[in-house]
Amino acid sequence: MPAAELDVRNLSAGYGQTHVLEDVSFSVPAGGRLSILGRNGMGKTTLMASLMGLTRRYAGSIAVGGTDITALGTAARARSGIGLVPQTREIFKGLTVEENLFAGLKGRPRSAIEEAYALFPRLRERRRNLGSQLSGGEQQMLATARTILGQPSVLLLDEPLEGLAPVICDMLMEAFTRLAGSGAMTILFVEQRLESALDFAEEVVILERGRIVWSGKPDALRADAETLERYVGVGGLH
Ligand SMILES: Nc1ncnc2c1ncn2[C@@H]1O[C@H](COP(=O)(O)OP(=O)(O)OP(=O)(O)O)[C@@H](O)[C@H]1O
What we know:
CATH topology: Rossmann fold
Helix content: 25-40%
CATH class: Alpha Beta
Order of helices and strands: EEEHEEHEHHHHEHEHEEHH
Shape: globular
Bound molecules: adenosine-5'-triphosphate
Oligomer: single chain
């Protein structure tokens, strides 16, 4: 599926009676890159989950490539082109790397897993290892590769660098940048590592208590120490 525009209008969502997101609106053009910032607990994961249809929606709408998907459940949203790599790095721990990748193919020929190995050569080296034998970084690579093999038009990356060593973060960022550069998918990137999030993005939004409190270009945010301190919890870039 080619990259698609994502349009979120006045989205309010949460869990049961707990409203988390309030009146969230933004759009990302086809092939665009949006980073979502905000401190812990401000609603970033809930936003990703809401796009995937995993939360309760109270109001608002979501469109992918001009088609309203608000009424669709999670599986139908996946079929319509949304791919989530969750913060929990879901992989099948009892299956090998290669078996995990086959599970992501969604009917594509088996040879397509070469795309995953091209993006993450480390996975080729580990292809006979079980998911449970992988490091955190390798699990992240596998979770990402599996989603990408499904050729989503909108890719949601939820804190992919969390807890990983700098050298692994570099490998992942290089792969995400390569994917973004191919223009094959629209990418939403939730990340606490500010410099990575700003380097990657064309546009940034900041969530605070479930609302968008700032949006703009990465350079504008780099220059805005007050906003960074207030909503991201850092006094500036080092
Ligand atoms: N399953 C749930 N049921 C009820 N409340 C939840 C649930 N998951 C998250 N929340 C609440 O929703 C709010 C936003 O959480 P969320 O995980 O979306 O934030 P976040 O910005 O992704 O934080 P983090 O950076 O820690 O992952 C928090 O107050 C959290 O306690």
